[in-house]
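User: Can you model how adenosine-5'-diphosphate sits in this protein?
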Amino acid sequence: MTFYQPVGHEVELFRAAADNGLPVLIKGPTGCGKTRFVRYMAEQLDRPVYTVACHDDLTAADLVGRHLIGPEGTYWQDGPLTRAVREGGICYLDEVVEARKDTTVVLHPLADDRRELPIERTGEVLNAAPGFMLVVSYNPGYQSLLKGMKPSTRQRFVSLSFDYPATELEQTIVMEESGCDRDLAAQLVSLAQSVRNLKDHDLEEAASTRLLIHTAHLVRAGVPVARACRSGMIEPLSDDEATVNALMEVVYAVF
Ligand code: ADP
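Assistant: Here's the modeled complex, given as structure tokens:
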């Protein structure tokens, strides 16, 4: 069973969307639990999940499928989206705004009440099986205006906004994931909150829950705490030496 600590009403909302065949858009910074949440919900709903990490070379064919050449000639291979459509599973497109624009052509008819997938290469139009659900995520923090989602796309989705969990919940997550004690979890969360408050100054992204978990693992493995914070949390945030040194001052203030 996947561990997931709910942080708001996301579980009920996702379930309501799933029951009504509505697609879901999850917004939020990196490392705040979006992927974990989707995996957990897929388990709860007993549906397979196909996760695709989108990137700027990702085309509609990567999602839908393509003809391949084998020993007996060419054959068709379904992509992850097509598999989810046929099986009634969840297709999760992580960082969807990175994908090439031609992907919207296949996503739009699936994301509204048509629930159909046109497969251009074979001329087929598939009707999505009842359990099929399209879930996409993106990080509004580092989206350029150009790359933002078009209103015609975003208005097809039920939207959930994720952020870093409240103090107690984040401590629980760090403890559950790393096996550390409450004291260390409390100090790491407090450190993260101080660093997040500096966010607007120098950093592209704030310290995520993921970084706290990494740091806690290092401490549990015997790495001295300041060194663990440097490698687990501070260095991954910035390449700028002055920034790293300033953030390490925050570390020394907490530990
Ligand atoms: P995202 O997809 O938002 O970038 P992830 O879902 O991969 O982030 O989360 C990063 C890590 O943080 C997960 O592997 C998990 O260990 C932890 N995590 C974050 N939020 C939660 C939560 N609410 N419940 C359980 N684990 C969480």
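A couple of observations from the model: The two ends are 34 Å apart (CA to CA). The longest strand covers residues 65-70.
User: Helpful, thanks.
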